[in-house]
Amino acid sequence: MKRLISVLIRYVPRKYLQLFSGVGLKALGIFYAGNKVECPICKSHYRQFLPYGRINPRPNALCPNCLSLERHRLIWLYIQEKTNFFQAKLNILHIAPEPCFMKRFEKQHGDTYITADIESPLAKVKMDIHQIPFGENHFDVVLCNHVLEHVENDIKAMTEIKRVLKPGGWAILQVPFFSPVPDVTFEDASITDPREREKIFGQDDHVRMFGKDYSKRIERAGLKAEANKFASELGETSAFRNGIEKNEILYIGRK
Fold first, then answer.
1. Of 151, 129, 126, 143, whose CA–CA distance to 205 is shortest?
2. Residue 39, domain extent
3. Could you tell me the pTM of the whole model?
4. Are residues 116 and 139 in the same domain?
5. What pairs with residue 75 in β-bridges?
């Protein structure tokens, strides 16, 4: 199972995985029936989640029903418990939207929930994050989860996010970190070979490896950086049942 999932996510383009993987994984979930873990997003429960990862798949990571991963379930619990995301109708920009969130967020926010991506067939707006096609001070919240490792200029992208956020607005700006985490973010545009990129950046479509200076990069874009440790506040039982990594930091940019 680990090898099959690894091959699929390494070699099948993301847009096709988003369109066609759901049915097969839901069927596979039958073989994981149980009640040891529960996805807080879709409320499905299993004896464990599916493994997920390109090279060394992580155990207990992928929800077979809604396709959420650890980071998605963490974001869900954070916005549910620590923000007014589900108590008010907000203007939301969701960049590279994940299927596990889309219908649920649209149900809450309606036509003020905007999904955008440069290639995803699921998004409402085709958009280059370096040139966001909305005016200043437009959105209450921007969700940008595991996107900035793919783009040409992460500082410019976050500057655009800051521009379209309302004063007092906030953005979730998650990126992957690979151990050992370097002190300084490393990027080299001359590295174009997919195998070399995978070796150096952790994935063949990544263009940088983020380091311990990530908060400073957020602040270079004009946002106030917050390295939020909400995950560490969860008890061991809650973290395990929801399939969340307790050491994951939520990076939030506030305007």
1. 151
2. 2-68
3. 0.89
4. yes
5. none
Q: Smallest Cα–Cα separation from 6: which of 59, 54, 58, 64?
A: 54
Last-in-domain residue among 23, 38, 68: 68
From first to last of the 255 residues of the chain, give the pLDDT tens digit: 555 544 444 545 555 445 445 555 666 667 778 999 999 999 999 999 988 877 778 899 999 999 999 999 999 999 999 999 999 999 999 999 999 999 999 999 999 999 999 988 889 999 999 999 999 999 999 999 999 999 999 999 999 999 999 999 999 999 999 999 999 999 999 999 988 998 999 888 999 999 999 999 999 999 999 999 999 999 999 999 999 999 999 999 999
Residue 75 lies in a domain: no
153 and 232 part of one domain: yes
Q: Where are the beta strands (DSSP E) in the chain?
A: 33-38, 45-46, 50-52, 58-62, 92-95, 113-117, 125-126, 139-144, 165-172, 186-187, 208-209, 224-228, 250-254
Number of H helices, E strands in the chain: 9, 13
Pair (150, 189) in one structural domain:
yes
